[in-house]
């Protein structure tokens, strides 16, 4: 997509993002994502979670996450900044992936790495209105942008269907100010499915492999 300069905030109320970048400008060359750990405050358990999330992306796709060399300019800078957030795709130069205290669990890190790979949020897809209803009156002031529907020209779904189970989908109460649903699924059986932070879904894996043409590797 075209929104590589935008950041997202986590569903805990910190700042957030959107599903795959259109075109190749924001994809990482050679299917390699260089990164640096720039915080010395990550605990041993934090590092285990970061490494487990990276391993999940590497195990199910053709992407490689590797430590950036001292001469590289384009890389993901993983730090303990406020909130859970990341740029979308490669934007050029160092780009921050923030993991505040509440973000340092594998599923959330998988989600944030998804943004770095080039994924936007599932509920921002152009076809989202066929699958969910956004209850704008329940959303915290100033956070409506997290629920914006993007136009077809901005999002490339690669033919992958809307995915309630995506690790990139918000939960039903994301950014609610009153304890009521902000996202209601059109199919009630999926209401408690959205917001998965267990790991990548089948269609997350499929989309990443289509985006990066893994079958051609």
Automatic annotation (TrEMBL):
**E.C. numbers:** 3.4.24.-
One Pfam match, by short name? Astacin
Record key words, sorted? Disulfide bond, EGF-like domain, Hydrolase, Metal-binding, Metalloprotease, Protease, Zinc
Q: Which residues form the Peptidase M12A domain?
A: 19-215
Per UniProt, the cofactor note for this protein states: Binds 1 zinc ion per subunit.
GO BP terms: namely: molting cycle, collagen and cuticulin-based cuticle; proteolysis
Q: Which InterPro entries match?
A: Astacin-like_dom, MetalloPept_cat_dom_sf, Peptidase_M12A, Peptidase_Metallo
Top enzyme class = hydrolase
Spell out the molecular function terms from Gene Ontology. Answer: metalloendopeptidase activity; zinc ion binding
> Which residues bind Zn(2+) per the record?
111, 115, 121
Active-site residues, as the UniProt record annotates them: 112
Cofactors needed by this protein, per the record, are: Zn(2+)
Protein name stated in the entry:
Metalloendopeptidase
Per the record, the gene is: 106065139
């Amino acid at each position: 997509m075209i929104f590589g300069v935008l950041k997202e905030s986590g569903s805990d109320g910190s700042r957030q993002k959107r599903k795959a970048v259109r075109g190749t400008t924001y994809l990482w060359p050679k299917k390699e994502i260089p990164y640096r750990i720039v915080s010395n405050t990550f605990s041993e358990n934090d590092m285990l979670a970061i490494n487990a999330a990276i391993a999940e992306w590497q195990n199910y796709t053709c992407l490689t996450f590797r430590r950036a060399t001292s001469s590289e300019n384009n890389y993901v800078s993983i730090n303990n900044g406020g909130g859970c957030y990341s740029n979308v795709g490669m934007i050029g130069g160092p780009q921050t992936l923030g993991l505040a205290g509440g973000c340092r669990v594998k599923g959330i890190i998988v989600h944030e790495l998804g943004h770095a790979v080039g994924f936007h949020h599932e509920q921002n897809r152009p076809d989202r209105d066929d699958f969910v209803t956004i209850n704008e009156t329940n959303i915290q002031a100033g956070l409506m942008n997290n629920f914006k529907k993007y136009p077809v020209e901005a999002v490339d779904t690669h033919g992958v269907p809307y995915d309630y189970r995506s690790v990139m989908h918000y939960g039903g109460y994301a950014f609610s100010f009153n304890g009521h649903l902000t996202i209601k699924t059109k199919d009630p059986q999926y209401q408690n499915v959205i917001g998965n932070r267990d790991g990548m879904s089948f269609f997350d894996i499929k989309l990443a492999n289509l985006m990066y043409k893994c079958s051609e590797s």
